[in-house]
Amino acid sequence: MRPFRYQHAPDIGSAVSALAEAPEAAYLAGGTNLVDLMKLEVAVPDLLVDVRELTSDRIEAHPDFVRIGAAVTNSALAADPVIRRRFPMLSQAVLSGASGQLRNLATTGGNLLQRTRCPYFQDLNTPCNKREPGTGCSAREGFQRDHAILGASEACIATHPSDMAVALAALDAVVNTEGPRGPRAIPLVDLHRLPGDEPERDTVLEHGELITSVDVPQLDFATNSRYRKARDRASFAFALVSVAAAVDTADGVVRDVRLALGGVAHKPWRATDAEAALRGAEASVEEFRRAADAELAGARPLPGNEFKIPLARNMIVGVLSELSGVPR
Amino acid sequence: MTATTSIIGAPVDRIDGAEKVRGAALYAAEHPVDQPVHAFPLQAEITRGRITGIDPAEAMSEPGVIAVLTHENAPELASAQDAELAILQSPEIAFHGQLIGAVLAESVEAARRAAQLVHVGYEQQAHDVDLHPARPDLVKPELVNGGFRTDTAEGDVDAALASAAVVVDEVYTTPQEHNNPLEPHATIASWTDGDLTLYDSTQGVHWVRESIAAVFGLDQQRIHVVCPHVGGGFGAKGVPHAHVVLAAMAARLVAPRPVKLVLTRQQMFTIVGYRTGTLQRLRLGSDAAGRLTAISHDAVSQTSRIKEFVEQTAVPTRTMYAAPNRRTTHRVAELDVPVPSWMRAPGECPGMFGLEVAVDEMAIACGLDPVEFRIRNEPDTDPSTGRPFSSRNLVACLREGAQRFGWAQRDPAPRSGRDGRWLVGTGVASSTYPVFSMPGTRATIRARPDGRYRVLIGAADLGTGAWTALTQIAADALGVEMSEIQLSIGDTDLPYASGAGGSTGITCWGSAIVDAARRLRAQLPNGEPIPDEGIEVTGTLPDNPYAGQMAMHSFGAQFAEVRVHADTGEVRVPRMLGIFAAGRMVNAKTARSQLLGGMTMGLSMALHEHSVVDPRYGHVVNHDFAGYHIATNADIGEIEVDWIDEHDPYVNPMGTKGIGELGIVGTAAAIANAAHHATGIRVRDLPITLDRFLT
Amino acid sequence: MDTEITLVVDGVEHSLVVDTRTTVLDALRERLGITSPKKGCDQGQCGACTLLLGDRRVNSCLMLAVAYDGANLRTADGLADADMHPLQRAFIEHDAFQCGYCTPGQVVSAVGMMQEMREGEPSAVTADAAELSDEVRERMSGNLCRCGAYANMIPAIVEVAQR
């Protein structure tokens, strides 16, 4: 770890100014990803501003939305009765990530900003455009099992590791921030970027912009939602593919649907093509498969991750069938 | 002293249990030493070539840094015979991540940071890390690990295969795997007046002393190695690896201050050995009645160009099943890779994956039940030597296991079991492990007139339960309660003991203790009381008069239920059963745990473990616990373990055979066979991941 | 950059000077000589360093000590005032460990986990798990054991959790 200064800020404004003055500074919340990356010297901040006590650690339920403070821990979020009742898939997504002890430290804001688990990104001895722009992508010709099949670029095929963010993407969540240019609200699906030729930028946040809370708009049929994750162990592993879905069916027809995929792209992947194909369609295995294929038509797999296409397709069909009561 | 036998076999709680559940048992890096200097290794960033220059200036200017050790200032070693240990003697680089030095600092943080500031220039050469069966440069080694013959041949395999009613001819592979004990390798080294003290995490303190004495050209008596507790090893701590030499070199630079060196998890993927990947071609021929007429097993593995280690993959095939024609071969690719070494059941573990899956395929091809097929091919004597078995209860294990597992109800048709979206199948495989003996172990007993006994032996407990089992053996041999025994292990000040390896620990150490107790009784032939000054006797591991006359092996049968998800291909193992025949069990509780632990690691091997090598860089890409998966608690279902009551008077006076490795052998094959039964898909390459079943 | 902090470990207050880079785990092991929590991976991937922060289980290898000035921490060595925590006794009875290196973290994690269950916090399998043992398997999956003692830990933990 490189030496760094550590400080508390009295309020959000001072924290934002502290970072604005220090181009290499970073915020510290749960630290479960940042501290690891600092040990590996993948992250090399010269100043850490501790923000754990600056943002809210409460979940506020309003009739038309729920506001989750950025400092709410993953375990508190997953256990919250309102979240469990109104957005079961969000609780399930959080619980499917990491371990009990990590979820006790990790925060909502930090979870969104965790960095890819691509092994080349985490290894200073291998080229990586995300860690060191212009050096090349080692994964493209290397180990690709965990990597992207959708929206990747020549420069980067990394995936975003968050489970929580996939459920939030499906739920049209909005991320509230405070930054050097004041507050703003960013739709979660726009928070994370596709890599393009600037894979070093994970999100659209400016330096010093702090996530203060996440709003999840009310969606009545989200009570009928589910997060399904497939991985290489039964627990405590990142997703190969995950599916977050909420479905509203009536008389055997899909009235509305929310669908997002994890483990397949540089960002939580909102499956808009599949959603479009599903709205108004018959709730049947055939239609679900057609919708999945529509979404995956744009997939560009590599030899090491081709299996994610049938995996994602089968999981979409499986989750939609379950939520719609369609027998298999 | 009257002999009692009730202590042997009893399910006694671990005597070190109370310390371990509190975290009070001391592991290598935890021994309190005064003002330790922390060392962080420097590793080669290229795969083959040489160092052209090292600039430590920036590292030295980092606050807290004391020294930078490199080949330019390292002490010259007395012996370079073991090229793995002869580090820092030249600028040559033989594999990615090879140790090229260390930073010494006042804190862990400073040492690790400064390691990034040592600037090393390299001249790179083309490297080759590709293990491939078609390589024209495969080498035939003189012997394979364990001292076994490289090749064997009996009868005419090719003719037998040509005339066989049924033939199976397939290639099976197991990937490179890493031992990954939870306790990272660690050494605290200090020099005082030319004497070296090592607190080292090792499976054998005397083996460390022998190796390090040779490397530094020291009299063995000048080296003191201490290791009361080991946080797992599974072979990776069997012999000292290069980091022990590095710690001792570093300590010389700052003597008399001690140096503490703890490897990171990532470094353990390069420095402390691993199980080579194996490529195995199995050819089996059978007659129409399901009797094997030919068995051929050709194994290829890799070793490092600087030091030969050849996994004895095909060796178990020499003993398992009867067949008049048999051929086994081993070839090895010498590559620019780290030095492979022992990992739990080297040889048997990967080799029995190939053989036992091939046997399953053959049983199905013959239309026979796989349990019945194995029983039908049971040999009368050891097929490779013609010697009688000292005891062999594979058939009893298969029968008992089949009965308990409910095998008779099994529909043999693949894809015949289903529970919702899960395809359900069951499979079986055999286990085996040889009974080895290692020479030289001695044990001392000091008897006191108050009826208490000190038992002294340089043995190791890496979780095997040796602290407890050896105390039981001593109490039994002396005819006293366990509470009268005070055991000391894990220190070179104690009598010489061979290391914990090859499942020999309890057998070798226990036999020496039994021999010492016999000598003690001989000094008091009429049951005289122990004299006031006490008595000290030293026993040795006796020669086995049956060695070379009988074939001595443990056996077992493993059964697994596997579920494969129809949508995702996810694989689960909700139920396993292992029935073993391994001689006498000293402690029913810890013995069960050993076998259970082996089966659990076997499940982990079956489903998860794979050290992925990137041929461009020559390193293991997934070098941490997030990338290299070992089984979590959620991966493990119900596991039942039991054994056949087996009395073998030939292996040693206690009748023990060793159980540390037997449990892992065959597990992966049982799971692969069950996965085939569940899905109809035959996986011949480990690990069995979900993508194998996706359509 | 050195900072003076206070940590309360197993009820005992310690003042110490740490580098900002020092983790809670290294502060305990290297500065205070408290070696009950273990270092298995130093990356939050094995759970051997698990401590209770208040009554919540956490990975001490990922916590910067400067950020936990004044924290109240508990290790496996301080779970019971005297003798042993019932879970520790159950671990011994069921032989729920072998080498013992992951064990303090397992024990602390199990104590934290039982508290989480008592408070009604769900796990990833709560909706589907028919058996308490399946709940415990999932909830204990942040603690790796290479010796393979999981199948003995489950009955040990279930037995205590059901009391």
Automatic annotation (TrEMBL), chain A:
Classification via InterPro entries: CO_DH_flav_C (IPR005107), CO_DH_flav_C_dom_sf (IPR036683), Diverse_Substr_Oxidored (IPR051312), FAD-bd_PCMH (IPR016166), FAD-bd_PCMH-like_sf (IPR036318), FAD-bd_PCMH_sub1 (IPR016167), FAD-bd_PCMH_sub2 (IPR016169), Mopterin_DH_FAD-bd (IPR002346)
One MF term in the entry's GO annotations: oxidoreductase activity
Keyword terms, alphabetized: Oxidoreductase
Signal sequence interval, chain numbering: none
Gene3D superfamilies: 3.30.465.10, CO dehydrogenase flavoprotein, C-terminal domain, Uridine Diphospho-n-acetylenolpyruvylglucosamine Reductase, domain 2
Pfam families xref list: CO_deh_flav_C (PF03450), FAD_binding_5 (PF00941)
Transmembrane segments: none
Span of domain FAD-binding PCMH-type: 1-221
Stored PANTHER family: OXIDOREDUCTASE (PTHR42659:SF1), XANTHINE DEHYDROGENASE SUBUNIT C-RELATED (PTHR42659)
The protein's name in its UniProt record: Xanthine dehydrogenase YagS FAD-binding subunit
Taxonomic classification: Bacteria, Bacillati, Actinomycetota, Actinomycetes, Pseudonocardiales
UniProtKB/TrEMBL annotation, chain B:
Endpoints of the signal sequence: none
Source organism superkingdom: Bacteria
One Pfam family linked to the record: MoCoBD_2
Keyword Membrane part of the UniProt annotation: no
SUPFAM superfamilies attached to this UniProt entry: CO dehydrogenase molybdoprotein N-domain-like, Molybdenum cofactor-binding domain
GO molecular function: iron ion binding; oxidoreductase activity
Any coiled-coil regions, as ranges: none
UniProt keyword annotations, A-Z: Molybdenum, Oxidoreductase
Domain Aldehyde oxidase/xanthine dehydrogenase a/b hammerhead residues, every copy: 22-126
PANTHER family: ALDEHYDE OXIDASE 1-RELATED, XANTHINE DEHYDROGENASE
The name this protein goes by in its record: Xanthine dehydrogenase YagR molybdenum-binding subunit
From TrEMBL, chain C:
UniProt-listed PROSITE patterns: 2FE2S_FER_1, 2FE2S_FER_2
Classification via Pfam families: Fer2, Fer2_2
Domain 2Fe-2S ferredoxin-type: 3-79
GO molecular function: 2 iron, 2 sulfur cluster binding; metal ion binding; oxidoreductase activity, acting on the aldehyde or oxo group of donors
Organism superkingdom: Bacteria
Pathway(s) the chain acts in: Alkaloid degradation; nicotine degradation
CDD domains linked: fer2
Keyword vocabulary terms for this entry: 2Fe-2S, Iron, Iron-sulfur, Metal-binding, Oxidoreductase
Stated name of the protein: Xanthine dehydrogenase YagT iron-sulfur-binding subunit
